[in-house]
UniProtKB/TrEMBL annotation:
Belongs to the EamA transporter family. It is a multi-pass membrane protein. SUPFAM superfamilies: Multidrug resistance efflux transporter EmrE. This is EamA family transporter. It holds the Pfam family EamA. It is found in: Cell membrane. Residues 304-323 are annotated as: Disordered. Residues 163-294 form the EamA domain. The chain crosses the membrane at residues 59-76, 88-108, 114-132, 139-157, 163-183, 195-216, 222-241, 253-273, 279-298. Residues 314-323 have a biased composition (Basic and acidic residues). Keywords: Cell membrane, Membrane, Transmembrane, Transmembrane helix.
Amino acid sequence: MYAHVLRPEPAPATVAARLVAAVGRPDAVPPPLLMLLGMFSTQLGAAVAKQLFGTTSPGGTTTLRLGFAALILLAVTRPGLRLGWRTGGLVVGFGLMLALMNLSFYAALHRVPLGVAVTIGFAGPLLVGLAGSRRLLDAAWAVLAGGGVLLISGLGGTGVDGLGLLFCVTCAVGWAGYVVLGGAVSQRVPGTRGLALGMAVGAVAVLPFGVAGSGTALLDPWILLLGVGVALLSSVVPYSAEMAALRRMPPRVFAVLLSLEPAIGALVGLVLLGELLAWPQFLGVACVVAAALGATLVRAAEPREAPARATPGHRSEPADHHP
């Protein structure tokens, strides 16, 4: 219908070129669009990673993602190793949390829909951030987020793989620990060097799981190429986009946009993977997003106080927070 007025679909190479140009010249792109680009890139990377599970294990996929991302970041930042015992310990802990978060996320993704894994994982640091507050309204946001997780987990009568759900909860714990330790590392190691070193520690930590689960499949050229793609989509592009966005927008606005990540995960899972969530699970995703948005907007309306730790609902500094 009206075919004579429709423009032809752009070739895949043209689309890829536009994305590269957007990342290469981030100041030419509006900050909210950069944020959306970063979040969609993260979830697209997760969708690509899920396609690897027919050839590699979740441990193998995690090894490829963290390994290539670490190599790229180390080449760019060239961090020094003179950190001191305390800072070095924080970096190691940070890297181990990064490994736990990603390994459990991909293990969960092997058994549950993308939207379920992302939302439950996202709820971890959100609930940790709200748990330190004594305000009744923050308690209400925590209850809303917790109720959303219960709905996603099968409270509404939808069956969810039990082991996959356990991996989701483990991812939430790892994500929360990653955010807390990441905040401490960012105070001691300036710029992106702490992230690069932590990524390297995480890559080494997951290597035994990758070798045990995938073996020589990790050396297949096609698998290596897909691993590079996952690392770029899930780490390099989102981090670059978010760094450029945060330079031109208030941290509170950044946090509001970041609250949309569970919904984007569910959308990407539906469109690219055909994962249709049941209505109680969609309602659960909406509850978690609403809790994150509510907590962020309420805090934004209050007078500025001492800086708080970065969480998905209250973020003061960008990091490669995505599992």
